[in-house]
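Design review, sub-item: ligand-bound model
Attendees: FS, YL, KQ
YL presented the inputs for the zinc ion complex:
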Amino acid sequence: MALQVFNTLTKTKEPFTPLEPGKVRLYVCGVTVYDYCHIGHARSAIVFDVIYRYLMHAGYETTYVRNFTDIDDKIIRRANEESSDYRAVAEKYILAFREDMEALDVLPPTVEPLATENITQMIEIIGILMEKGIAYQPFPGSDVYFAVERFSDYGKLSGRMLDDMLAGARVEVDASKLNPLDFVLWKASKPGEPAWESPWGPGRPGWHIECSAMGNRYLGRTFDIHGGGRDLVFPHHENEKAQSEAAFEVPFVRYWLHNGFVNINNEKMSKSLGNFFTIKDVLDRVHPEALRLFVLSKHYRSPVDFTDETIADAERGLEKLYGTLAAVMERVPEASTDFPQKALQSQDKELYDAVETLPQAFHEAMDNDFNTAQAIGYIFGLQRHLQRFLDRFGRKKLKGAAAGLAQKGTALLKQYSQVLGLLTRDPRLFLDEQRKLKLKSTGLSEQEIEQSIELRKKAREEKNFGEADRIRDELEKKGVQLEDSPEGTRWRVII
Ligand SMILES: [Zn+2]
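KQ shared the predicted structure:
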């Protein structure tokens, strides 16, 4: 089966055929850089990162453009609040965004243009729309608007009729607009505001025109995929489409892809509800790869619910995957040679089958509108068989065909997880990072735990078992569990 994607424009799942065979042009709306990014932004970044990775995995040469909105009312307001310059505000939050993306292992797109680097292109498109009489300036020096009534396809992407929009919309009444839904293409600047010269007077671009200009400049008049969060369908994407198609008279985008929302404990995330988390807040207590697994455990179009339990589920899942990888490193020390199929099969039929069927199952899931939830299900299926197989050997090292099968399973587990940007770390490093993160919540340091273990050891040597148990129970109350083994006492965080 070839790749199928759900297109917001047609509201159906369609076979994916790029404009040019073997090549994909992908545009995703970036962030407005006036504040730290929240986990809704993280979801969108991760979802489209995986789509980008999978397109490349499927052999498409992919050009991926994700912009920065570095001029806008919110940025200007923030600059005024901080008595700084809009450029300084933008720079600060671009840097913060890049830090977040790096932590989340989100690949850099091919091009990351700034809106302010593309003002000439925006002015050009607005000029075309003015010439065609689709855009208008109510009076000299005022804002420039797009006349929605002069573009017959307006509302097609979001599935709204102009009259319904008017009835339901809370649009500002502005006497200078022909229709209250007309939107700004060029915003006249007030004294002291950043401004660029234009045929309509000094000003700055409206938000929507940016993406039309950057999409057109870097990907052409028509490109393959335009993505973003579901909240962008209307008005942002509807307006992008209207401007571009009215100006160039060709379809703007072939496939529109939108990811669902992130809810917090089943409620909409909002600053006013006080359940608003920045990426930085979350990464302070959750491993970035666990956040990635959490996001990808649901289909990208469904909502995801961010709760202590769903995050703990993702953490446990990742610990399992890495735990199995670590166990293989320990028990299968040497690279094994190739073994005939029969020899491998005779070791463990179920594991062998899971290994053999993973590639096809994984591709079928991902080809079905990037169903990462299902793809991850298959990865865990293989992990379970692999772990069960290892468990059969107890603490013994695996040799011969058994080692060969375990290695084959491990290689596949990593290979396909990495298409999703998962299992990219050394397992021991991950388990150590994860333990340190969880340790934070216990309020104990590694040193304190080691000291307690030492004290307990002494108490046991002195046959003071009451004291030894007291130390163990006290640690457990704080969330640290001790495990005695012939090699000594190990500990793990259980909260
Ligand atoms: Zn956009």
